Amino acid sequence: MKVVLLITALVGWLYTPAQDTQLHSPLAPGKGRLVVLFTVQSDNFSRPQQQDLISGRYPVFFNNQLLCRMQYLTYTIHDVDTGNHVMATQFNGKKLRANASKTPATITSNKISYLEIFFDVSKGVNGYQIMPISKILADDLLRKLMPVNDCKVD
Hints:
154 residues; four-stranded antiparallel sheet; 39% strand
C-alpha cells in the first residue's frame, strides 16, 4: 500500500505543470492573474489543417490591445488589473476586427482566472470561441500544453 501511495505521489509530482511557480507566485495589490489556454476541437482534423494550426501564431486581445500571439496547444500567463475586461481573438492581424470572437472576462484581485480559446476546425477561420473554464479543467489542460515563451506582440 505504501508503495502505491509513493508511486502515485511521484507520478503526480512528475506531471505537475512547469509553470507552477509562475502560476502561484504572489500578486501585486489590485492585480489578478489571467491564464489563457489555446486548444482545438475537430473530428475531421486533416494533416494540412494540423500543420496550419501548429505553425500559425494567432492574436489574442485584452481590452482591444494585442496581448499575445499564441499557437495551437499553448498557454500564457499574465498579471492584469482587476475589473471587467474583454478578451478577443481572430485568425490574424494586429488590430482587432469588429467580427472577432469576444467574451467578457472578470478579473478578481489576488485570484486566477482561466480562459480557454477553443478552435473548432470545422468552422474555418470563424471557429474561435473564448470561454471561462474551471481550475480543475485548466489544471488538466495545462499538463498537455506548452508555455508561450515569447508573445511577439510587435
